[in-house]
Amino acid sequence: MKGIGLSLPNRGILFGAISVAEMLELAEFADRGEFFDSVWVGDGLIAKPRVEAVASLAAISARTTRVQLGVCCLATFPLRQPVVFAAQWASLDVLSGGRALLAVCLGATTERSGGNVLAELTAAGITGRERVPRLEEGVRLVRALWSGPTSWDGQFWSFPEVSLEPRPIQDPCPIWIASNPDPDRMPEHRYRAAIERVATLADGWQTAVTTPEDFGRKWDEIQSAADAAGRDASALTSSAHLMINLAGSREEARAEGKRFLDTYYSMDSSDEILDRWGAFGTPEQVMDRIDQYLAVGLDVPVLRFASFDQPGQMELAEQTLLPELQRRRRTVPAG
Q: Is pTM beyond 0.90 here?
C-alpha cells in the first residue's frame, strides 16, 4: 500500500452535510496527523453541482503543508479549455509546493452523474460522443504545455507555439485516469479501449463502485496492457474511491450511508450499489472489506465518510479504523 486518502464531500456544502469550516478543519486534521497522505475533493458542474474542485483545493492548500491534493475525479475535464486548465493546475501545484494530484475522467452519463447531464454538455458546447477524444487529446495537450514551448494541431484545439508559465513544480506532474469500464454493459472494443487508455496515457488508475474481484481483474488487465505498450507497469498507481460508514452494527452503518449517498448523488442506492461502493459496519467489518481490495493490488484507498456527521466519523475512525489501516500500510508491500 502506497498511501491513504481522505475524500472531502465538497458537494455536501450545498445541502448542509458539511460546512466550509468543517471541510477545511478536516483537511487540516489529515495534514497534521500520521494517517492520511492525500486529501481529495470531487468535481461537477451542472449535473452534480458543488464548490468547484480547483478552487476548493486551492483553499485547502493554504491550510495544509504535507498532504497531496487530489480530485477524484475531474469529471469536467472534457468540458474545460485545456490551455486555461493547464495554467490553473500548474498554479495549484506551485501554490501548494508541488502537491497537486490530478485524476481525470469522462463524467460518464450514469445515474450517479445527476439529472442534468445533457444540459451540462449543451452548456459547455460539446456532445456526448466528444467526451472520450476530448479527454485523450486534453491529457496529451496539458502534458505538452507543462513540458515546454508547445504548438498544437489537434482534433479540437489548434494554435501556434506558446509558452505556459508557471509550470508545475512536479516534473512530471501526475495525471491519473479514473474509470470503471463494465464488460457486461459495453461492447468489447469500448471496454478494451478504456483499459488501454489508462495503460498508455495515465500515471495511475482510480475507480469506484466495483467489487474487490472486479478491481483486481481490471488492474491486472491495465498492467498487462501497459507492459504490452512498452511502459513500466510497476510505475503505475492504483486507487479506489471507497464510501465508508462506521457504526455499532452493519445495519446502522448501511442505513446512514445510504441516506447520505442518496442525498449526495440524487439517487436511490440499491443494496448491490452499496456492496460495490464501499464498506459499512463496525470498524472490524470495514477493515475486512478494505483488506479485500488491498489483497488484489490496491495501492491507495481514498476514504469518504458517507455520513452527515463528518467530524464524528473522523473521530471514530481515528480511534479505531485508521490505526489498523496504518498497520496494513507498514505490512502490505506497495504495488
A: yes
